[in-house]
Amino acid sequence: MSNLKIEETDLLCKKGCGFYGNPAWQGYCSKCWKELKHNKDDKISLKFDPKTTLQQQQQQQPSSTQQQHSLLRKSKIIPSIFGKSLSKLLLLLIFSYSSPKYHDQQSHSHRHQQSKPRSTTTRQSSEESQKVGKELVDYLRSLDMKEIMINIPKQVKGVIEKLYQMSLGNSPVDELSEMLSTFYQLMNDNMTSKHLYKAEEAEELLNLCERYVLTRLYSHLFSPSVTDDEQLDLKLQARIRSLHWISVHLLDVVLNESIDGVREHVESAITAIIEMNAKRCPQDKLECVVKCSKHIFEALKFSKNEPASADEFLPALIYIVLKANPPLLESNIQFITRFTNPTRLMTGEAGYYFTNLCCAVAFIKSLTHESLNLPESEFNRYMNGEITAHDPHISRTCEGLKLMEKNEKTLMEVKSGQEALMAEMLQMQQDMIDFKTSFHSQLTSLKMRAPLKIKPRRKKVDLDADDDSKVLQLPPPLQPQV
Amino acid sequence: MSNKPTNSALSPKSYQYKLVLLGESAVGKSSLVLRFVKGQFHDYQESTIGAAFLTQSVCLEDATVKFEIWDTAGQERYHSLAPMYYRGAHVAIVVYDITSQDTFSRAKTWIKELQRQASAGIVICLVGNKIDLADKKMVETSEAKAYADENGLLFMETSAKTATNVTELFIAIAKKLPKNESTSHSGQMRRGIELNATPQTDSQQTGCCK
Prior knowledge:
- The complex is a heterodimer of chains A (about 475) and B (about 210).
- Chain A is mainly alpha-helical.
- Chain A folds into three domains: about 10-15 and about 225-385, Glutathione S-transferase Yfyf (Class Pi), Chain A, domain 2 (Up-down Bundle); about 45-105 and about 125-220, no CATH class; about 400-430.
- Chain A is about 65% helix and about 0% strand.
- Chain A is built from 22 helices and no strands.
- The longest helix of chain A has about 50 residues, at about 400-450.
- Chain A starts with 7 loop residues before the first helix and ends in a 9-residue tail after the last helix.
- With about 210 residues, chain B is α/β, with parallel strands linked by helices.
- Chain B has a single domain (about 15-180), classed as Rossmann fold (3-Layer(aba) Sandwich).
- Helices cover about 25% and strands about 20% of the residues of chain B.
- Chain B has helices spanning about 30-40, 80-85, 100-115, 140-150, 165-175; strands at about 15-25, 55-60, 65-70, 90-95, 125-130, 155.
- Chain B has a six-stranded mixed sheet, sandwiched between helices.
- At the A-B interface, helix 6, helix 9, helix 10, helix 11 and helix 15 of A face strand 1, helix 1 and strand 3 of B.
């Protein structure tokens, strides 16, 4: 902390070649680090123990891309020793994606010894990507089939690379989405046609691949600059804000928010739908939608005491979306629609709830006075803010007052509990005093009946003790008589 | 193609279909489904809190048919959203209330729309519910039957309340559905892509993958 300012010279390669160094390469530039590492590797390979090295690789697996590259180099030097583990190495390499363009640039500039160092950024995978990458690799490994292991990572890497280049080249988003869905199709067909593994395994693999690809490229695929998602987000947000006056009754929602349990579930549903934006891959986003929907059903069940149907669910979902106004909702929906495996949206529970969410958004966008059964003039006055929502049935008190009432109730409960406790304590104190006095009186009466006399202890006589007084008490020793 | 391992050991083949429920809001769509799902077979659906998304299987002699039932909101104001639900559906059940002529004409609108917009092979089924209220009957069986025949629909009159014809309805649908391989798996949508086509990987690889 003593020196917060970093000089430019501190950033340069430790070897002094004039290029910038990188902390990940211990302060060397890529070229010097490579050389250094190469020398080290050669030394290591001379006394190579396959067992320990394999363990090392597994430990190093989630580490940075650079280390994985160096591992690969090892494998090239001594492929025969690695034998079986080669395929695992391949996996490691393949999932440590780095743009080849970047490497070309670097070596090129080195070759020509340009005087000006180039500042380039490394594409290091984020924590999330590393995590999903590891999951995928682990799963592939658990299947333990070489053929798949080599083929799938190759395809996954291929598609990541392609998508990355396409997004850099500002390709239309439809092309990207088309490419990805072709990829899913291809993977699926490949897997099912080869009969190598069970349907569930194939599904899980496809799932993990999707997770990995989309987590990896999330920043490029979510709300890409070629689309106007961002404007749509803002528009939708403004639209929802302008509809803040819509109440439960206008939408015919059967939610009764005056019940505590209902309110809790409504709040949880709102939290869940807002949380969607924080997740990266479509599976997790959809999970949030499902969670939100489940809370809505719970809330409806609380209000109605019977399982709700779609007739009640959709209006409730619309109401929740209006209340929550989730951030970047349009972008999130678009991201899921474009890039997740299409079958995920056509079938299954998540697909159903996602369809409902899309419907809710479509309804909100196209909402008119007719959809609320309001006269046009009144609708317009609401929209202009001339009249504000006044609903005698629900929010008679504001949220703060409700909270206050609730707190007051809790306090009263605590108070009565406290009083009860206090009374018990006093009672106990009294009991203790009573006990003491009765104990005393009993004790004294007992003492009276049988007084305790303590006799002095008898002393033991120690014959061997070297006591003169005792010796004196003894009769004189017998004298021999002649 | 057919010797693919299936997950159920009980029957030789299992198929999964997406079924969409359409109909005015008070005609008893969800009671129909609840009766079907809870009244027979193993009810293993994960959530019983809601009746909007449910699954249930029907066992035929040679196959198990699993229905994934998507309920839709029946109110008029949500009518325009219906296509989002029946996209990719294999079956659509259009329900009307036999005691209300209005619900029958709404059902007809839906059927026209389905024929125009839904996927080509969709099986459409017209269902008149609430036959336990026969004394209040407003839609004649002959009228509905004629309409169904004219449009090539399955037709049945049911009562969710007394369970009349409910199971029969789903069995009839299960029998009518095409049992080809393409629908046997939920995770598949064939689009005629060559199976062994080599994936287009990047030729500019770092040269270490062989």
